[in-house]
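Re: beginner question about structure tokens

> Can someone show what the tokenized structure looks like for a real chain? I only ever see the sequence side.

Sure, here's an example I had lying around. Input first:
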Amino acid sequence: MKLNTRSLVFVKLILAGEPVSNYWKQRSITFVLRVAASVMLALFVNTATAQARTFTNLQVLPANISDEELNQAMIANLRGLGLPRCQSSGCLYCHEGDMEVPAIEWDYAADTKLAKRKAREMMVMVREINARLQGLESRVAPDLTPC
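And the corresponding structure tokens:
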């Protein structure tokens, strides 16, 4: 949609009740309807996106975590376990689901798999260790190259 000052001027004239030719009235009304439809679409998309971002049964991760942060945390867990970044052997290692069903329908909140419960324990353990080590001076990693 091309926004120009002429359309805005005619919209102002129409709203003010000034006489305007039918052609410009129709064009300005079309412009107003397009703007209104764009605003309504943007509001609908934002509402749908906000509803899609509510997660359940987050016991270790923050409740207000974003999609991107949650995905990064899950990928970090996969890397830590040496699992591939794929649904069949990665996500399903901890989460309840079936490859015959779309991933959006999986029960990510279920705690039935032992691997998921252990992953939570490990995340808490890493957080506690990092908190304890935070006060120590920075250390240089040892050189592990062979002699």
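Each token stands for a local structural state, so reading them left to right follows the chain. Residues 67-133 form one domain.
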